[in-house]
Design goal:
Layout (H helix, E strand, L loop, with lengths): L1 H19 L8 H6 L2 E3 L19 E16 L2 E8 L8 E4 L3 E8 L10 E2 L19 E7 L4 E6 L5 H6 L3 E7 L9 E10 L9 E2 L4 H6 L4 E4 L12 E4 L3 E10 L4 E6 L3 E5 L7 E4 L1 E4 L3 E8 L4 E7 L3 H5 L3 E7 L26
Parallel strand pairs: 1-2, 2-5, 3-11, 4-9, 10-14, 13-21
Antiparallel strand pairs: 2-3, 5-7, 6-8, 8-9, 10-12, 14-19, 15-18, 15-20, 16-17, 16-19, 20-21
The structure holds copper (II) ion.
Length: 353
């Protein structure tokens, strides 16, 4: 009860001081009130909200709910995930540089523990974590101004922080630069995470979190978008030859860094670490835990292009494998496919015996 009364008292005091100084009680609000108010479109991975076309800042309202739910992590294996918006990674948030964001965080009534949010796009204490400690069944709110463009990770920062992140509490928020990003044909949302279960890789059933493995940094699963196979088969990312593609790639960790690579493609541009500058003609980009990258390339030829963490045992033994399926006309000038498969005469091996 005391914790609820204190803010009220603080507000009353602030109001009294403001009145005494003949200022509005919340001086920051009127400027924001003049701006257009927009409800943020949130999407589950691998979808991305549409690009922002407006040329002026707005007040953007974000409504995000934290939900604890059992979901598939691999074939025959489930895990009690903790989520932002019901998915791992959490809902993709897209705003514009200069926007004022009114952030509403709800913790579903069925949750067992309190959660909060630290958005790396926020300038302020804890990235919003302190303002959003939210008990099950409660809603909290704070407002921030998006000062810096870039692709930012958000995550739960409730103690034990590592456990909340290990349970899937992370996602991406894109702060588009004032002039927007270059137009592309397709955008995708991909985020890597490492998971720690009591059972060994592939051991069926509901698997509890292993704190011991997490502390030792020995993940059982390393996956894209919260589960093995979330980007394969019917869930593969789809594009057509000739299309330009942008992937917003994040790494939730909690422990591993990702050597992100797409087999059979070269990134024309990588906005490394999710920042403003880009590197060109990149094969593999390093994405730190709690960091991101925007990768862009043209899908020149058809085929199955495989997303991997090039720390490659993770890909073939822990799950970090996704597929970008590109349909379209073959272009043998760029890639022929196999041209020969035959016996050849035996002789001295290259380099000698
Ligand atoms: Cu949490």
């Amino acid at each position: 009860m005391r914790t609820q009364l204190r803010p009220l008292f603080a507000c009353a005091l602030a109001g009294a001081i403001a009145s005494a100084l003949a200022l509005p009680a919340f001086a920051a609000q009127p400027a924001a009130a003049k701006m257009e108010t927009i409800q943020a479109v949130l999407t589950a991975p691998p979808m991305v909200p549409p690009p922002i076309t407006r040329k002026t800042p707005a007040k953007v309202v974000v409504d995000l709910e934290m939900v604890e739910k059992e979901m598939r992590i691999s074939d025959g294996v489930t895990y009690n995930f903790w989520t932002f918006g019901g998915s791992v990674p959490g809902s993709f948030i897209r705003i514009r540089e200069g926007d004022t964001v009114e952030f509403h965080l709800k913790n579903h009534h069925s949750s067992h523990v309190p959660h909060n949010i630290d958005l790396h796009a926020v300038t302020g204490t804890g990235g919003g974590a302190e303002a959003t400690n939210t008990l099950p069944g409660r809603e909290t709110q704070f407002t921030f101004k998006a000062l810096n463009p870039g692709l930012y990770v958000y995550h739960c920062a409730m103690a034990p922080v590592g456990m909340h992140i290990a349970n899937g509490m992370y996602g991406l928020i894109l702060v588009e630069p004032k002039d927007g990003l270059p137009k592309v044909d397709k955008e995708f949302y991909v985020m890597q995470g490492d998971f720690y279960t009591e059972g060994a890789y592939g051991e069926p059933g509901l698997q509890p979190f292993s704190l011991e493995k997490a502390i030792d940094e020995h993940p059982t699963y390393v996956v894209f978008n919260g589960a093995e196979g979330s980007l394969t088969g019917d869930n593969a990312l789809a594009a057509k030859a000739g299309e330009t593609i942008r992937m917003f790639v994040g790494n939730g960790g909690p422990n591993l860094v990702s050597s992100f690579h797409v087999i059979g493609e070269i990134f024309d541009k990588v906005y490394f670490e999710g920042g403003t500058k880009y590197q060109e003609n990149v094969q593999t980009t390093l994405i730190p835990a709690g960091g991101s990258a925007m990768v862009e390339f043209k899908a020149d030829v058809p085929g199955n292009f495989i997303l991997v963490d090039h720390s490659i045992f993770r890909t073939f033994h822990k799950g970090s494998l996704g597929i970008l399926k590109v349909d379209g006309e073959k272009n043998p000038e760029i890639y022929t496919g196999q041209q020969l498969d035959r016996e050849y005469p035996e002789g001295e091996p290259q380099g000698g015996r």
